[in-house]
Amino acid sequence: MPEAAHQRPGVREEGDASWSPKSPTRRPDLGPLFCLPSPGFAFPDWAYKPESSPGSRQIQLWHFILELLQKEEYQGVIAWQGDYGEFVIKDPDEVARLWGIRKCKPHMNYDKLSRALRYYYNKRILHKTKGKRFTYKFNFSKVVLVNYPLLDMAAATTGSPLLLTPGPFGGAPGPDAPPLTPETLQTLFSAPRLGEPGARAPLFTPETDKLRLDSPFPFLGSGATGYSKPPGLLGHFGRAFPEHPWNFSPYLTGPSPKLPPPLYPPHFYPNPLASSLGHLPSAGAGGGPTATPLLAATGEGLGPERPAGLAVAQRLALPGAGGPEAALGGKEDSDSELEITDVSGCSSDSDGDEGLPVPPKAKAGKGAVGS
DNA sequence: TACGGAAGTT
DNA sequence: AACTTCCGTA
């Protein structure tokens, strides 16, 4: 009954959302401890489907997966493993539980979650890595295209269909080949405000409306094969990545004082201060080698998305780059103590949830799955 | 364990 | 549209 007086203008009301500002402390990670359909976390508005798609406004499963994948805390539950874009659900029940919490579906389980994942097969967002248990693989290019009209707009503008140019080597990737690297995704996700005259989008040049995705793909095309376990999205992965000619480590995000190209939308809080992000370490601008304009495509008839790129573009919070954390003056490394078991934000009627089906189980408590 | 049809929900 | 729920099949 404690209705929120009013939502932030910038954040669109979810209509049914009953956001209750119960927690004074800010929630760093999977913010939605309160099963809110959307406010504050993970992906900026534009990362979600266009407004015209009412049914797709809530977080999508693959967003969520990416989100978990991005966080170290969950490496015991789900993690990148194997080929490029490949990930393993080490603890299916836990992932399902977390997903259920996020969606306010107390009865979620891996069986259901996996059904949803299977629907992604046809959508080309995901596919199964046969033979490997609980292992799936992202088709990043699709992921991007589906959600980033910018690219499509670029395509529309240039009049050419979106084509992914895997690195400087050209050549269209096969339908199953992972054409887009997580790094690219990164770049895309970190697209700053495009309407800003002062700031320049890393992948877009408003003046020409040309796609300017100049993020290099050192390992795509050529070294793609020998490359595995890439999506190092966090600041530290304790692993070495291939080196890049241009001191550009797509993986580095925190430590790198130079340009910390944010990965996927890190923690994106609907923070007013974040809006004032004046500068963004555009990947291209800094040490940008700037290769050829990059276009992405899946080869399949990626329908005509609406060219609303500019309108939807927003800034992203960049961790370790004067992002919201810095702006807030708060520390940003507080995401470790996150606990996702709270469903108190779920409207009791929305799901007819019984009392509290979600046990106050601690997070990834299971030892690493010694696969 | 994985797949996909069918119907239901938001 | 994007799941969620249920289920028969392999």
TrEMBL record:
GO biological process: cell differentiation
InterPro entries in the record: Ets_dom, ETS_fam, WH-like_DNA-bd_sf, WH_DNA-bd_sf
Gene3D superfamilies from the UniProt entry: Winged helix-like DNA-binding domain superfamily/Winged helix DNA-binding domain (1.10.10.10)
Recorded GO CC terms: nucleus
Pfam families, sorted: Ets
Subcellular location: Nucleus
PROSITE patterns linked to this entry: ETS_DOMAIN_1, ETS_DOMAIN_2, ETS_DOMAIN_3
Family to which this protein belongs: Belongs to the ETS family.
Protein's recorded name: ETS domain-containing protein
Organism: Cervus elaphus hippelaphus
